[in-house]
Design goal:
It is built from two helices and four strands; from the N terminus they run βαββαβ. By secondary structure, it is α+β, with helices and mostly antiparallel strands.
Length: about 90
């Protein structure tokens, strides 16, 4: 078997994250607030929201400027630790 390594990301770069959680009126605002702390400068054009077919879940997709692996790790950990987020992709 050959060892295939994932491609290395060159920072800074545009990076898209998807955050999934229970749908709530303030879920998108919550996600944007947390992401903004780690990657300031998000605009309305960088945000896309999709609700599940039954309306139980909400998916917030954001485009950020990633500056390094430490930034992404801290962002993912804070979102997951909130208790409101089910998955970060």
């Amino acid at each position: 078997m050959s060892d295939v390594k994932a491609p290395k990301i060159e920072f800074p770069c545009d990076y898209v994250i998807k955050v999934i959680g229970h749908a709530a009126p303030d879920f998108t605002d919550f996600v944007v607030e947390v992401v903004e702390q780690h990657a300031p400068g998000i605009t309305e054009a960088d945000i896309s929201v999709t609700d599940s077919s039954r309306g139980r879940f909400s998916s917030v997709q954001l485009k950020i400027v990633a500056t390094g692996e430490d930034q992404l790790k801290a962002l993912f950990e804070e979102l997951k630790a909130s208790g409101r987020v089910h998955m970060v992709l």
